[in-house]
């Protein structure tokens, strides 16, 4: 754990004076600084504090451009603010209202409280709400928030442990900590620090009753959200950027090349999938990078040592109806003529002390060879690299694979002036944005995926997030699930699970574990088989291979629903796999069941995470739930022990919802765009329009019946006690008489 900032000289800001109010902003003087409070959007307050010159600096100004332009998709305020004076506990203050949501702020000492109606959802610490230390051009800000004794803190990035982050200490710019900037509480508030500088989150680690945020930046710039988690995610993603659209083929099953597996062996494995009737859509090639700059010229070419005939490789995959993802990296090998030419031109990141290009240690993408990092803050370099990637896409690449979150030392500077934490934060964002421009920039609407394990502010804009490399045992299964749920709770909607890891021993991968892992992956955003001995379906007995076939048929039937959830994430910011705290904030008992999850709005999934058939399931309060395996109905707020064979998984449909399923297929190219759906399952009387890809099915209720349009030609399976009547293009669902 890194040392915490020395806060001995951080002075609390105490004196507050009202200056002026506008339609969506109120200005205050606080000590010798200025505090702006903005109604950024309904339920969203923006607090900015600094000297007057810094606050009024335009977005194009040096140093503020990255935060203003790179991190915010919607920098302008769209809310309305009503400001009034008030007296609370004998002291004068001000109340800044947005409908039933209000921010109350009082002076001497400076303190604020957030209200929804009459309910206070968040208060700052009374004696040290906001403190500041200024040193030269740097500033350190400290914000302290009070916590209830049992209040959970969620979000803030990836973890394989408890989804409640309370008790931890996190630093934003340390890649190993896997931090993201959104924090929220099921109590009804969220917080986002808008900066590319270092942010330290003390989540009741040192002081059990406080959440303390330390921000290293010239300006203090924080957004506070009020509302249910679904409302917070909607406003957060609108503020920082919505997820990109993946398209259809990435929703199919993937096969990853193992580190010791040749391209010929990978091709044979893919052919076996086709021969055995196991559905498959794409292959992901292993590192090192398959394409790169030549040693003496900026030409981007295939690695002839790995791929002697690129056209033959692409053609062989297309013959199997497979797409290809392949690794790349934003660098040029050190010691080459091109490295020296671009060093002289200033196109590589520079070491401050020597003025020479920074040399990254070799990694798996560069085949262990040291390389210089392209300065992607330079518009010419950014454009060149993106254009070279698009050239590769035009030659048959389906999706690039790129991890660009380097632990860049503090003494490295980009042309735009960023260094240290700012550069570590911005670099992976620029790399993934350049790749998304290459893959999706020439499409309308923009579609495409970029595989990466990088985490950074606004990571949710660029799908698809790669999962962790986990051990091939029951602990590894739980690890990959928890990372997906923690990423979803931090605003990243999609993780691609691996079915095990080719980078670990497969000795612990039993047939039972393999099938349980596959079943969970089927009910997720997506997943990939691993091309390594002991991890391919063909390495198991015939019974297991038949179960693989069974679950892959389920996966492709679920594609219309899962892609509908992803499309919904583009609009709302909600993840595909939703933790219990995110989906049911008002049911504290549900939060303890943190390996269950809601898959979209309609399905509750309880993965089997240990050997055996018996599984305990908690069905959240407020809804009834229908067992997909038995058709039985259960009341919410109850706990059950269910039995699940290897061909089943505890999955429950939420009453009032519908599940639209597609046909079985060997790859997404077999989907009929005119008939993407095959069957509809109903969980009680339909009340909600179903989530389904590119389809408009609408539910309307009237006089105790549901009238549905858009189900022409589909088989309908109603719940017990309901009857179906078709009248032209309309379906009527009513209670059986």
Can you walk me through this structure?
This protein has 13 helices and 48 strands. The chain has 737 residues and is an alpha+beta fold. The strands form eleven sheets. Strands 2-3-4-5-19-16-15-13 form an eight-stranded antiparallel beta sheet. A seven-stranded parallel beta sheet has the order 29-24-21-20-33-32-31, with helices on one face. Helix 9 (474-488) links the parallel strand 31 and strand 32. The chain is globular and about 75 Å long. The N and C termini lie far apart (66 Å).
List keywords for this structure.
737 residues, alpha+beta, 8-stranded antiparallel beta sheet, 7-stranded parallel beta sheet, 13 helices, globular, disordered N terminus, Glyco_hydro_31_C
Tertiary shape = globular
Beta percentage is: 25-35%
What would you report as the Rg, rounded to the nearest angstrom? 27 Å
Order of the strands making up the biggest sheet:
2-3-4-5-19-16-15-13
Mean pLDDT: 93
Task: Provide the low-confidence segments as ranges.
Answer: 1-7, 60-68
Compact overview of the structure:
It contains 13 helices and 48 strands. It has 737 residues and is α+β, with helices and mostly antiparallel strands.
Q: Topology of this structure?
A:
Blueprint: E1 11-12, E2 16-21, E3 25-30, E4 33-41, E5 44-50, H1 52-55, H2 65-71, E6 82-88, E7 91-98, E8 101-106, E9 111-116, E10 119-123, E11 130-135, E12 138-146, E13 154-155, E14 169-171, E15 182-185, E16 189-193, E17 199-203, E18 210-216, E19 220-226, H3 229-240, E20 254-257, H4 263-276, E21 282-284, E22 291-293, E23 300-302, H5 310-319, E24 323-327, E25 331-333, H6 337-345, E26 350-351, E27 359-360, E28 371-373, H7 379-394, E29 399-401, E30 412-413, H8 420-440, E31 465-466, H9 474-488, E32 495-498, H10 511-522, E33 526-531, H11 542-572, E34 577-578, H12 580-583, H13 588-591, E35 597-599, E36 603-605, E37 614-619, E38 624-627, E39 633-635, E40 638-643, E41 651-654, E42 658-661, E43 679-682, E44 698-702, E45 705-709, E46 715-717, E47 722-727, E48 730-735
Parallel strand pairs: 20-21, 20-33, 21-24, 24-29, 31-32, 32-33, 43-46
Antiparallel strand pairs: 1-11, 2-3, 3-4, 4-5, 5-19, 6-7, 7-8, 8-9, 9-10, 11-12, 12-18, 13-15, 14-17, 15-16, 16-19, 17-18, 22-23, 25-28, 26-30, 27-28, 34-35, 35-36, 36-41, 37-40, 38-39, 38-41, 42-43, 44-45, 45-48, 47-48
Helix pairs in contact: 7-8, 10-11
